[in-house]
Amino acid sequence: MSDFYDVYSVFSVTEKKEFASFLRKRNRRGDTKNLELLRLLGSGQTKDLDIALYGKPSKGALHALSKRLMDTLVDFVASNSFADETSLELEAMKFLLASRIFFEQKLYRIAFKTIRKAEAKALETDNYAILNEIHHTKIQYAHLNQEWVLTKLIAASERNHQLLVQDMQLNMVYAKIKLELRQNPTASVSAIISDAFSEFQLEITEGLTYKSLYQLMEITATSAKLQRDFYTVSPFMRTLFAKVKQKGEVTEKYMYYYLNIAYLMAATDFRNKAFETSKVQVGYIEEVLGDSKKHLQNVFSGRVARLKALNEAYTGNIQKAIDLLCNTTDTSLNNKLLLVMCFFLNEEYQKAYRLLNTLKHTDDWYLKKMDWPWVLKKNSIEILLLIELDKLDLVLNRMQRFSRRFGKLLKDVGEQRVLIFMGLVKEYYDRPMAVTSEVFMEKVEHSFDWIGREQEDIFVMSFFAWLKAKMEKRKLYEVTLELVSLPT
Q1: Beta-carbon contacts of residue 370 (< 8 Å; ≥ 6 apart)
Q2: Are 120 and 131 contacting, i.e. CB atoms less than 8 angstroms apart?
Q3: What's the average model confidence in pLDDT over 452-464?
Q4: For position 1, what pLDDT does the model report?
Q5: Phi-psi region of 341 (alpha: psi -120 to 50; beta: other; left: phi over 0)
Q6: CA 265 to CA 282: how far, in whole Å?
Q7: What would the pLDDT profile of 307-325 be if each residue is shown by its tens digit?
């Protein structure tokens, strides 16, 4: 059942209700156990499910039921996908296929009308592959329609073919970039992107589609997150954002990609401690979302609320950040961990620990769902919380587990500082009175290669703020704000 639970656990509350309704409609018999199995899994029960369902051990029946439930889940996910993101593509394909049948049956009037619908749907999503087939069909039957000019149809087909080839080349570029970053996780992101574009003889211009520019920004931001270095990539992100701005007014057709681009730029500004600039961009996204369709609001509202809360937390409004996170309908793992962090910064350690304890899955499970920086942050906060709550047996256990889990990984990506920091944390826990001594302060000073306030990662600074607060006997939040505030 692990595959089922992996998928089902990331469903929103609404999606879980929709899936239960989907199951009821599929059930043909009143004694079907799938809804009961769904209820048990939803409550977190994973052991002795056969006994709970059948009143006795029945592994064979449970296996068959589980397989049917998983098959239905796949059908549900596929149906929802077709109903949402890919609906325009499906409609375009259906109209195209229908028009071809009408042409073959010599129903030309309805064939012309249907292929116009197909072309309109394909143009809405810039689907060059489907448009390519539409152009071929129109050229094939151009002699039957006096309104179609063959030379114009051929010219349109050639223009679309160029866009199709460019789209294929861009896909190759993205594949190359991702492979290079996977093989060289500490390499310069902008250099890898530049080399990949040169290899395929492409240029980064405003002529690239919104989708292409978004993909470039997303790759850059993801790599910067893994490398904890948004400072170095910031100029490149701004260059890409400028290319987007040069494209002019954004139509509804491209709003999904544009909002993603605007969000990535706002997140980059936050990570570089340009809080006011980030706030302005977040405000713009909120304004656009207020007038947007519901599906865009569903996609972006949670992310925007978290970024808004982060900007508030790091500009002196920690309680406002907490209120924002507590009042959102977002139940994502990112939201929970951010709220844990805000409680921690506000020294509400019991609240933070209670919320952290609701994240009950293993590190391996979270690695599949999130990424290693998220899991690293979760484990780091947990250790500091256990120290604050003086849970001796758990502190030692978690520190040993931390070293085993992240030791090699952090060395491979050049982040030994985290291991050094945890060593100092252990030293503090073993001898808390020594942390205020000049000897300890000097040891801390010589333990790290300080790279400057502007360049240092904001979350790295946040963890160091905890140690600095202990050394100086000051409030954690006060020290955090002092560290992340850039000189004016």
Answers
A1: 333, 334
A2: no
A3: 85
A4: 58
A5: alpha
A6: 10
A7: 999 999 999 999 999 999 9
| C-alpha torsion 444→445→446→451, nearest 10 | 120
277-282 long-range contacts, Cβ below 8 Å, gap at least 24? Answer: 278/307, 278/311, 279/308, 279/311, 279/315, 282/307, 282/308, 282/311
Q: What are phi and psi of 156, to 5 degrees?
A: -65, -40
Average pLDDT over residues 122-132: 90
* pTM of the model as a whole: 0.76
pLDDT at residue 353 greater than cutoff 50: yes
Helices marked H in 105-188: 108-124, 128-140, 150-183
DSSP, res 84: T
A 10 A CB-CB count for 137 gives 19
Q: What is the spatial distance between Cα 414 and Cα 460, in angstroms, rounded to a whole number?
A: 14
Q: What confidence score (pLDDT) does residue 393 get?
A: 82
CB contact at 8 A, 39 and 24: no
Cα–Cα distance list, 281 to 38, 295, 354 (Å): 41, 20, 33
**Which residue type, as a one-letter code, is found at position 388?**
E
Instruction: Count the neighbouring beta carbons within 10 Å of the beta carbon of residue 308.
Output: 23
**In what helix (H) or strand (E) does residue 87 lie, and over which residues does it extend?**
helix 87-104
In this predicted structure, what is the pLDDT of residue 305?
Answer: 92
- The dihedral over CA atoms of 418, 424, 425, 426, expressed in degrees to the nearest 10, equals 110
For 188-244, what is each residue's pLDDT tens digit? 887 888 888 888 888 888 888 888 889 889 988 888 888 888 888 899 899 999 999
Contacts of 268 (CB under 8 A, 6+ apart): 221, 224, 230, 233, 234, 237
When the pLDDT of each residue in the chain is averaged and rounded to a whole number, the result is 86
Tell me the per-residue pLDDT of 335-350, one tens digit each, with 9 for 90 and over: 999 999 999 999 999 9
CA–CA separation, 94 vs 11, rounded Å? Answer: 30
Query: How many residues in the chain?
Result: 488
Angle at 191 between CA 186 and CA 193, to 5 degrees: 100
Sign of the dihedral through C-alpha 368, 373, 376, 382 = negative
- Model pLDDT, residue 476: 94
Asked if 198 and 233 touch (Cβ cutoff 8 Å), the reply is no
For residue 17, the model assigns a pLDDT of 83
Tokens of 206: 């405003």
22 close to 76: Cβ distance less than 8 angstroms:
yes
Please give the share of the chain, as a percent, with pLDDT higher than 70: 94
Residue at 262: amino acid letter: A
Q: By the 8 A CB rule, do 313 and 342 touch?
A: yes
Three-state secondary structure readout of 324-392: HHHHCCCCCHHHHHHHHHHHHHCCCHHHHHHHHCCCCCCHHHHHHHCCHHHHHHHHHHHHHHHHHCCCH
